[in-house]
Design brief:
The complex is a heterodimer of chains A (313) and B (219). Helices cover 69% and strands 0% of the residues of chain A. The longest helix of chain A has 32 residues, at 2-33. The model of chain A has no long low-confidence stretch (mean pLDDT 88). The N and C termini of chain A lie far apart (39 Å). Chain A is mainly alpha-helical and 313 residues long. In chain A, helix 3 runs parallel beside helix 9 (219-244) and helix 5 crosses helix 6 (159-168). Chain A has helices at residues 2-33, 43-52, 64-80, 99-119, 123-154, 159-168, 175-191, 210-213, 219-244, 257-282, 291-312. Chain B is mainly α and 219 residues long. In chain B, helix 2 packs parallel to helix 6. Chain B has helices at residues 3-24, 28-53, 57-84, 96-120, 129-145, 149-171, 176-204. Chain B has one domain. Classes of the chains: A mainly alpha (313), B mainly alpha (219). Chains A and B meet through helix 7 and helix 11 of A and helix 1 and helix 4 of B.
Chain lengths: 313, 219
Amino acid sequence: MIYPIVIEILQTLILLAAAPAFIGWIRMVKCWFQGRTSPGIFQPYRDIAKLFSKDVVLAENASWIFRFTPYLVFGATVLMAGIIPILSVDLPFSATADVIALVALFAIARFFTALAGMDIGTAFGGMGSSREMTIASLAEPAMLMAIFTVSLVSQSTSLSQMVQVVAHGQFILRPSLAFALLAFILITLAETGRVPVDNPATHLELTMIHEAMILEYSGRHLALIEWAGMMKLFIFAVLGIALFLPWGVAATGVLTGIPAAFLFLIVKLGFIGIVLVLIETGLAKMRIFRVPEFLGSAFLFATLGMLSYFMLE
Amino acid sequence: MNLAAQINSLLAALILLTAFGLLVQKRMYGLLHIFAWQGLFLSVSTAVVGYAAGTHHLYISSVLTLLLKVILLPYILHVLIQRLQIHKEIETVVNVPTTMLIGIALVIFSYHLTAPIRELSTLVTRSTLAVALATVMIGLLMMITRRHAVTQIIGFLAMENGLFFAATSATYGMPLVVELGVALDILIAAFIFGIFFFHIRTTFDSLDVKQMAKLKEED
């Protein structure tokens, strides 16, 4: 009985510790691709440590929402590590929260970030919030649709069950999963604020979306939000692995599978990082008015995936 | 499902994807590339069905599709676009997200329409019939939503692709004589379209078919 709880704790620790390294890896590969010298894989840790050691500067009219949001966003993001099978499918939490709850956790974090963006009353915060919600309202249905397609294949919305079926079941060529994967990649780019939709590296007034919302944060608040942002990208990566490339995740009650699962995870994350960098260096940031088309095609792929499950399988 | 049927399903999904790609692509050369890809998937699918069903005349259809729809027709259209000096992007009549939604609705409609046939059929390809019908309808939708004459022709050719796919998936292909005739027709049609394009342009100074509504002098 103690064993699943150990796995839950292990997964949470991996999420907390490995998310900055994953970002560091992406930035490092990006530097190599663009012919720059990289600051190393551990730079995000240094950034977070630096922010934690700084004082918080609060606006005079900041309400409790503004102070509360970083902790809520951080907490909601850490909670997701208990649901997604990162190392093993043996998760006690997955019985209580399925993939719809996971999307809801994302929505709570986003809702409070948008509120905090508007709380101070600066122009940039409001603009960032409105843009974020516009994108979210288009990305969320597409994401649910893509996830439901995988649920249809595995006949369950519990992530553990989904991984179990795809990883340990018989391999069948499924066009529905290919479509869902395409949709999921597009949604990941939009939701985590990566290049064709948002640029996480700049604070340019006209184009920033996520950065505009958190512009007023400083010190440990900013550290928590940045860390949560890194964990969000990590979670999308492991969610993609769990839904579409789950081979290697340990099965129920197999303690010996954990080290192998860990190695598989590192290899897959390294690969995903390279793919992400290829996408980001190959594409330019699109105009914000093109984003609905981008997310519309994500919705199209997800719907085609669901339809092709019914039509072709 | 055996492996051939799985591969065929995957190709059917890709054909559907290219149909949607044609529907939303705005650039002329992009359209030609997607059309060529659709022809390629169609050709491979025909060969796979021919292998699975043991009907060897499908190999000939497959090669014919490859030559005609992947190489010759895109080449002819490419030359036409260059001769007619069309560079600018194409505008769509209905905006892209709406067109996509209509396309999805058409897919669901054709799925329901072919459901009884799927129940009766015993072929391995029966599940792809809905995709074939959807491809025909999306081609038709493309002809309706686009204004440009060249784009409408690509829509028409995509419809023909859908019909060909329907024939393969519903009955393992038409008799070879019929298929040869259709292929020849398509080829001749492409040449006639070319001549028409030049006539339309010399008469109206544009390939926008909206101009053709102005037959009378206005005001």
